[in-house]
Known about the structure:
Layout: H1 2-23, H2 29-53, H3 72-98, H4 101-108, H5 111-122, H6 129-148, H7 160-182, H8 188-208
Helix pairs in contact: 2-8, 3-7, 3-8, 5-6, 5-7
Amino acid sequence: MWLLLSFVSATLLGFYDTSKKAALKDNAVLPVLLLNTVISTFLFSPFILDGLAGQNWFSGTMFDTSEAVGDLRAHLLVLIKSAIVLSSWIAGYFGIKHIPITIVGPINATRPVLVLVGAMIFFGERLNWCQWIGVILSILSIYMMSRSSKKENIDFTHNKWMLFVAIGTIMGAVSGLYDKFIMQKLSPVFGQSWFNLYQFIMMLAVCLV
């Protein structure tokens, strides 16, 4: 079952990248991101409102909001998470707007490998031989893409948008590792709900500036 869900997740991520590319085709990056955060905040706002009102509308479900208020420390943790993800999104969106998706997609696919290496360094986890093979293949694939991308007049070392893609990928991996840390301390509903709200506020500030 979990293998099937992994394939479903990979498929949805593929649609996610193509949707981003399509949304950015004739639009500026920041307004698209702002609209993204507005929609996400709207979808999760019922959980914030329920937690603040204490009505427990979602009690007994996976969206139980009994811990959806949180203390100052919890909100600071989510605030940091929002800043990390937003920086990843801004860099990644600028990159995908100017770089072919056939190059951006495989680079983004190396993010789980970075998370594996980070988990080994920061959480003391160990990779098995299959995971090490995956790490080596990912590094090899990036090298091969850097060679083939020159045919599309894209030089990995001299194209500023490739730097944006790299920053977005690295910050995305940092976000994954940070998730491992904060999800041991916060409820998923609290984290996701307030994360969307704080991200919207930050994105609104960026657009106004």
